[in-house]
Amino acid sequence: MAVLKKALKRSDTIVGVDFGTTKICVVVGQLGSDGLNIVGIGKQPSLGIRKGIVVNIPSTVQAVKKAVEVAELMAGCEVDTACVGIAGHHIKGFNSGGVVAVKNKEVTAADVERAMDAAKAIAIPLDREVLHVIPQEFILDDQDGVRDPLGMAGVRLEGKVHIVTGAVSSAQNLVKCANMAGINVSDIVLEPLASAEAVLTADEKELGVALVDIGGGTTDIALFVRGSVVHTSVIAMAGSHVTNDIAVGLRASIQDAEKIKINAGCAMGSLIPNEQTIEVAVVGGQKSREVSRSVLNKIIEPRVEEIFSLVNREISASGYKHLLSAGVVITGGTSLLEGLPEIGEFILEMPVRRGFPQGVGGLTDVVSSPIYSTAVGLLMYGVKNRSQVRFRVKEENVYSKVMGRMKVWLGDVF
After folding, report:
1. Which of 5, 130, 220, 273 has its CA at a distance of 20 to 30 angstroms from the CA of residue 265?
2. Domain of 147?
């Protein structure tokens, strides 16, 4: 009976691990009759990840272990399986389509499967693997926007999907770090897709919206049109670049520069009261000095403008900017910077709002911050796509392993 209770408890527990550039965040959720409740949170500084990619396995494993211990203590249960997020400039997303003839002039499940198989039939390099195959829509003869064509009359069926790929080595290193910390990986999820689960509404996705997750090392973008993902990309510039600029400009340590950014940083000079100053501890043990916030703004604002300019270029190049009626939702730790939505609206020429995790219960007062958007989103994604453990590093040929995992992914999605 004790074993049965333990199994039931684990089956109702969902765990998300956000491998961020500045922090490792572990969030534990309990699935109950009233929905998903956050019951445990663990956060540790990340020293082994740079721009979303693992560069030091021992440091990353140590941070994951500590974060898991804190989350387990708070939640009162053991963590052994988790859904993990992946990001980095190696991520590539693209749209694909496939066309088939409807055999009996009425769409059957076999016709839908053949259309999806045609859409998935793409060649990717051996050093990359498919992370997501996301259905978008069907086109039956000349009728587009069809979500479920079963039973409809027609002769030509086209299926459209969005495919996300990533570097094999980057995904394997994440899985290896999790395994060495005692955690099995149930799924690997692109971080902007996870964040979208937590901060976007169904109406925004239907109208057309851009999710911009500005973290520590990367800025992740996901565009939604008519409820489906149409574009994903990653920009290798984010909050850590702002911190480095402050450290250089004010001759402060990286740690002090991060505190200054959080406590006194502002991305738009017109929002700063006149003659407001801050105290800066100069690196090297010299005497601290007072600096005007307007001077700090002159350091921060150019870098923020550059980030949003790159975002604007990416959104414009996607060809979907004119369809984003709901504007832009920014999230991630850097989105808390004062004045960020205002300068974003100016550069992107669209409405911009901050996105906070929503739709969960429990420790909502703690996780109601853009810092936890990805981790909470991983829980929500895990609830939608609950599955058995599929990712574990083994001593086998990497390419045969990738092909096996691709078959499982594609079989699960379709």
Report:
1. 220
2. 92-165
